[in-house]
Amino acid sequence: MSAVMITRKVRKWEKLPxxxxxxxxxxVMMARQKxxxxxxxxxxxxxxxxxxxxxxxYLAVNLSPAIPVFAALLFLFVMxxxxxxxxxxxxxxxxxxxxxxxxxxxxxxxxNGNVPAGQRPPPRIRNVQINNQIVKLKYCYTCKIFRxxxxxxxxxxxxxxxxxxxxxxxxxxxxGKRNYRYFYLFTLSLSxxxxxxxxxxxxxxxxRSVDSGFLNTLKETPGTVLEVLxxxxxxxxxxxxxxxxxxxxxxxxxxxxxIKGSWSGKNRVQNPYSHKNIIKNCCEVLCGxxxxxxxxxxxLMQEDSPASETxxxxxxxxxxVPQTTHAMLCLQKTTAPLIPNEHTPDDVKPSIADSAEKTPxxxxxxxxxxxxxxxxxxxxxxxxxxxxxxxx
Length: 392
Description:
- The chain is an alpha+beta fold and 392 residues long.
- Helix content is 50%, strand content 14%.
């Protein structure tokens, strides 16, 4: 067996580190934990399906046909923003190459000098100035890079994300620089859709209760009760989440910075990214430029992979089989027991002279002698010895 290296072209997303999953040849990027994301899809699609099945036919005839049309448009917008948030790159930063990591390590060692044994080395931090404010860049020991401002390492996806806000299991992805606006539009549109469905559920129950009574209405439309319960319990959380992110956008701040208290005013540290104006902050976050992905997920790269290759059989091994077979056939034809027995035919019984010719002596086997002429038969040797005795 011999190992042969084969060079083949692969997509870069196939070799990206981290704990993300990719679909559609790298176009879709999500976290590995997608169970809660499927629950989000089930709740949204299930609630809207019940609304279109039970309430919309009655409301379109007795109130206005625009009600189901607006609900359908709102539902489509919610799904588009959800999928856009879940399937996009949130702003993952590529890890340092081995050569780059080695160079950074050398720079850090040169800056820190020789650290005495037993002492902890100083923290790996670089200071940059943003809007007359000193901001610390922390070193990521996993990605081997100094993270840009506002970036953080997500422990769930195991990647550094630029302008990291938080990891949202409901969308199955991190929320960062490249998908935050879509996440906010998703929460905002979902809040409007929840309020819309909850409101017209109540209107539907009231209008039918006037004609057939409250209890009969609940029996005729069991889906309405389920919709009201789902909307009631999700309304507060979704609307509260939207209000919280509206507050953060007005300050140009992230959830990660708010939880850590990065710009809480302690030690005279102010938010260097805020424009001190709500409208400007909202425009920067929601209407700013769309940043391209720095991963190049669908780019091509060459990979050397070992492939086991069976060595071709040698000429000696190929010839050994027929030679062995030929030897076996010869043995079957010529070999016979040295002592004839009653079961051995007379024509196959070997003579003593033949056995002597075929059986080499032990001395001949032990030490290889030079080539000699063929030995005579035992009978000829006996006659020669008798003639010599008579001569003497």
